[in-house]
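Hi all, a correction to my earlier message: I attached the wrong file for Coenzyme PQQ synthesis protein A. Here's the right sequence:
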Amino acid sequence: MPIADPGPTIKRPPHPMEDIMAWKKPRVTEVSLALEINSYACAEIG
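and the right structure:
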């Protein structure tokens, strides 16, 4: 079954706030803390 043609696209002028509100990809940074786990909590299921 063919997909219906959505028709012509309507181009709108850019909004002045569009650049300010644009989503920016977050930067992920790994920080080494050089910590050691010396005990574990007992997890009881039930």
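Sorry for the mix-up. The chain has a mean pLDDT of 77.
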